[in-house]
Amino acid sequence: MSWTWLWLAGLLEIAWAAGLKYSHGFSRPLPTVFTLLAMVASFWCLAQAVRALPLGTAYAVWTGIGAVGAFALGVWLFGEALTPWRAACLALIVIGIAGLKLGA
């Protein structure tokens, strides 16, 4: 169950990262509230995960999921560049997340 909490925490991290963009520096009320709620929920889910998982593994996987997801949303929603170099670096993050999961 702890890995489920961790994946949910990572998905919520992606949500709040996107919410930061839409909130325009917390100047738009609805995206700001969404972002803050997603942050709290993400941290809560992470806290549930670290009850059973090693802290270093859980934190690295959580931030990795958020980084990969935020990157993907940046490319998809905000027109950020997807160069071969950036894609290769992203693949390294995904490999790292998989390695931490397999080694836990």
From TrEMBL:
Gene3D superfamilies: 1.10.3730.20. The chain crosses the membrane at residues 33-53, 60-79, 85-103. One of its GO terms (cellular component) is plasma membrane. The keyword Transport applies. Its main location: membrane. It is a multi-pass membrane protein. It is found in: Cell membrane. It comes from the Bacteria. SUPFAM superfamilies: Multidrug resistance efflux transporter EmrE. GO terms for molecular function: transmembrane transporter activity. One of its GO terms (biological process) is xenobiotic detoxification by transmembrane export across the plasma membrane. Keywords: Cell membrane, Membrane, Transmembrane, Transmembrane helix, Transport. The keyword rRNA-binding does not apply. Belongs to the drug/metabolite transporter (DMT) superfamily. Small multidrug resistance (SMR) (TC 2.A.7.1) family. Gdx/SugE subfamily. This is Guanidinium exporter. The lineage of its organism: Bacteria, Pseudomonadati, Pseudomonadota, Gammaproteobacteria, Lysobacterales.
